[in-house]
User: Fold this.
Amino acid sequence: MTVAVVVGGGSGIGAAVVHRQRLQGAEVLVWDRGDEADIRCDITDAAQVDEATDVTIERIGVPSLVTVTAGIGHSAMFLDAPVDEWDRVVGTNAKGVWLVIRALARHMLDNGGGSIVVTSSVSAQLADKLMGLYCVSKAALDMVIAVAALEWAPTIRVNGVAPGVTDTAMLGPVPRERGWLRGVAERTALGRLGTPDDIAEAILALHEIGWVTGQVLTCDGGLSLHSP
Assistant:
């Protein structure tokens, strides 16, 4: 039986990955900060990550598939962002993911390896003056993916997906049918916002493609083909 861990699997894209993997017969353990978690874990806390790793090994053994969708959004101009927000955003979206994947990779390397896929963003490549810290955090994450893939090859493949605007709780109560989000849908080549299941499909595909590592797959319905 395939053994999998989904970090951030309590909601959104992560929950969609969990649902698909369980339908395929995998044993899946969910790490999250919320009540939906099998293991509660704040990925910014190295001690919690190490503890969650130990509990995972005890419960289900060493995973062969690891998906990390945990992350936070942020909106502020560079000139306005509080200094401690840099540490919070980059510390979650880049450092936190690094803490998770290296903790699990140590065991995977000794157990035949596998595949790791993490969630980046088109914002890693598209500068947005309203989302500077978020853009920086995801750009850093893209390099985490590349270095991890090189360091842990050929035993572990490490890849990422880069969603565009995806209809998850991170968008909050912003109306989908008008205003900013309607504009996003209209300039997306495929004519709508992304869904968690759209991104989950890409994540599962990357887990299966054996000759790909160190890559970040843009999964945005064509939004970044024409985005102001």
Remarks:
- The radius of gyration is 17 Å.
